[in-house]
Design goal:
single chain, globular, eight-stranded mixed beta sheet, five-stranded mixed beta sheet, alpha+beta
Length: 473
């Protein structure tokens, strides 16, 4: 087995962060008969003397890329705005530098009109997670994100708190029976569910997504990997809510978090690749490649994105309908909101495309759900319509540890202990989703009091996630 070589090893040799490192790492996967030290020496020499390696089977592609990179000129790329507009920043003291830098770059795009960074922000690809970006007539696939239309959905039942504690076995049984998790997992044969979204004409007329219908059908009503969940909890209204018509009190509620599964991930990957081919941005901004919304490609992506969002909503609807029937409960209210999406909205009197990557719509009176972690409360909120935030709020607590760091630093015993302390039953989930990997939700909420009003508090009690902690397929 080849000794791993990572991006940091290559940076130490002088490789700049960007596409060259990706090409170089592909060479390492194909190496035979060379030790790590010998391979690193080759990498160093190929960077310094690429002409000598052009004919080599292993390093030829890398050598050509090094030469091409050296010959690049500023005029080969779309120019970035060197005097970008300022953007609103919430919870500044708890946002990592990487997320700030990504937002700074996004603000330099020539199509950018305005931006905002939410208090749960952390580094992602292209636009940071927690980033909100308004653009003029342009759509950025990585500004939307990979899990298109990912969303929260809440059903409030006419079931009092005590009933849950007296019937935990029943709730666990129904949770196991009516949810399915993990990358690539879905339903087959008689277990497949029909939904009107599958009859949408786009599945037949759209040149790229028509081949994804079978995948979409099999995964309908399932949830992905990573931080996706289906959970029961207690929702507490401190006072009557006239809009939802729910009296003060505590109610059993179902909360789900998932997106457009493999369908959306495939759409995101395809159109990100296409955008990079037609939008030649400098290396530093390459993951923010955008499509002109009036172009054929831009319209293709817009149609596919909206279908993926509706499909994600259908997945939640299937889960919530199954659970309502299984419990024999009456639903007092349903609330749903989504992120990883782009909307046509008005800002400062002009139509813009608002990308919310891991950020929740929070226009005046708009309902939203902002979860904490599997042991921290979530909040049912109502937006205040803050224009500086581009009518947005956080989509959760946000990570304070990467998945890799969480797995290395959090033990199974520590995770079991915190679950026990909070009286939470957990089904599945890896250490990368441990509560300690997330920011303090109370700090996040304190940083956005100008953006949302809290309507009710949700306390998780029984949580199901992917058994293997897998990411989306």
């Amino acid at each position: 087995m080849n000794t791993p070589i990572n991006g940091n090893d290559l940076k130490d040799l002088g490789y700049a962060e960007g596409s060259l490192i990706g090409i170089a790492l592909k060479c390492n996967r194909k190496r035979t008969g060379l030790t790590k030290e010998q391979m690193l020496e080759k990498y160093k020499d190929a960077l310094a003397n690429p002409e000598s390696y052009l004919e080599e089977a292993l390093f030829g592609t890398l050598a050509q890329a090094v030469i091409d990179k050296a010959n690049e000129k500023p005029e080969d790329f779309i120019a970035l705005n060197q005097n970008p507009p300022a953007y609103a920043l919430y919870g500044e003291n708890h946002i990592e530098e990487g997320a700030r830098k990504q937002m700074d770059i996004a603000m330099q795009l020539p199509v950018t009109v305005a931006g905002a960074l939410m208090p749960d922000a952390h580094q992602g690809y292209g636009l940071p997670i927690g980033g909100v970006l308004a653009t003029k007539n342009a759509i950025i696939p990585y500004g939307v994100g990979v899990d298109i239309g990912c969303r929260m959905a809440l059903s409030v039942y006419d079931i009092p708190e005590l009933f849950y504690y007296e019937n935990e076995d029943k709730f666990k049984r129904e949770l196991l029976a009516h949810s399915k998790f993990g990358a690539g997992h879905g339903f087959h044969g008689q277990y497949k569910t029909d939904h009107a979204v599958l009859e949408r004409k786009e599945f037949n007329n759209h040149s790229f997504i028509k081949n994804l219908k079978d995948k979409a059908w099999s995964q309908l009503g399932s949830s992905g990997g990573g931080n996706h969940f289906v959970e029961f909890g207690i929702l507490e209204f401190a006072q009557d809510d006239k809009v939802l018509n729910i009296p003060k009190g505590k109610y059993v509620a179902l909360l789900t978090h998932s997106g457009s599964r493999g369908f959306g991930a495939t759409v995101a990957g395809h159109y990100t690749k296409m955008a990079k081919e037609v939008c030649n941005l400098p290396e530093i901004a390459r993951n923010l490649a955008y499509l002109d919304l009036e172009s054929e490609l831009g319209q293709e992506y817009w149609i596919a994105m909206n279908l993926a969002g509706d499909y994600a909503s259908a997945c939640h609807e299937v889960i919530h309908d199954k659970m309502e029937k299984a419990l024999g409960a009456t639903v007092l209210a349903k609330v749903e909101n989504h992120h990883n999406f782009a909307w046509k909205e008005h800002y400062n009197g002009e139509e813009v495309i608002v990308h919310r990557k891991g950020a929740t719509p929070a226009g005046k009176g708009v309902m939203g759900i902002i979860p904490g972690s599997m042991t921290a409360p979530g909040f049912l909120v109502r937006g205040k319509g803050e224009e500086q935030a581009i009518n947005s709020a956080s989509h959760g607590a946000g990570r304070q540890m990467s998945r890799t760091k969480a797995i290395k630093n959090i033990s199974k015993n520590e995770m079991k202990s915190i679950l026990k302390d909070h009286n939470v039953t957990l089904i599945g989930a890896g250490l990368d989703e441990a509560p300690m990997a997330y920011k303090d939700i109370h700090q996040v909420m304190a940083a956005q009091t100008d953006l949302v009003d809290v309507v009710a508090k949700f306390t998780p009690k029984m949580v199901r996630m992917a058994d293997d902690g897998s990411r989306e397929d």
